[in-house]
Amino acid sequence: MMHAWHQFRWEIQGTRKNLLLEGDAFYTADPSLTLSESSAAHPSYRRMEVPASYTLVPESMPHDAAFNVAQTYMLLANDLERGTTDCPAFADALVRHRMIAAIENAARTGQRQSY
Questions:
Q1: What are the domain boundaries of the chain?
Q2: Comparing 26 with 93, which gets the higher pLDDT?
Q3: What is this structure's pTM?
Q4: In the Cβ-directed half-sphere of 90, how many Cα atoms lie within 13 Å?
Q5: Contact 115, 106 (CB under 8 A)
Q6: Residue 37 contacts residue 20 (beta carbons within 8 Å)
Q7: Count of helices and strands (H, E) across the chain
Q8: Which domain of life is it from (predicted)?
Q9: pLDDT digits 0-9 by tens, 28-44
């Protein structure tokens, strides 16, 4: 399948599915960032839509860096109000760093990694 040229493209090949993250730049507020999936049964990438329930701020808010900050503040407010722990914390960042290290090790060694 032909894809439009993007400045950022990250393809992750898994054992059951493949993921493709593309955009004009790599930062989470980039409105061009899209996530697609494929599998052996469906080899062409299909775009994955973000469920509407994941958007906590008004849809009228521009999708830029402020949008993500507002989303995080809404998660934090909900956590404080409801006693939940949905807002990312230090432990989540630690997992992401371990994941990145595993990806780097897999790329360097050619061996599957765990984290």
A1: 1-49
A2: 93
A3: 0.62
A4: 0
A5: no
A6: yes
A7: 2, 4
A8: Bacteria
A9: 666 678 899 999 999 99
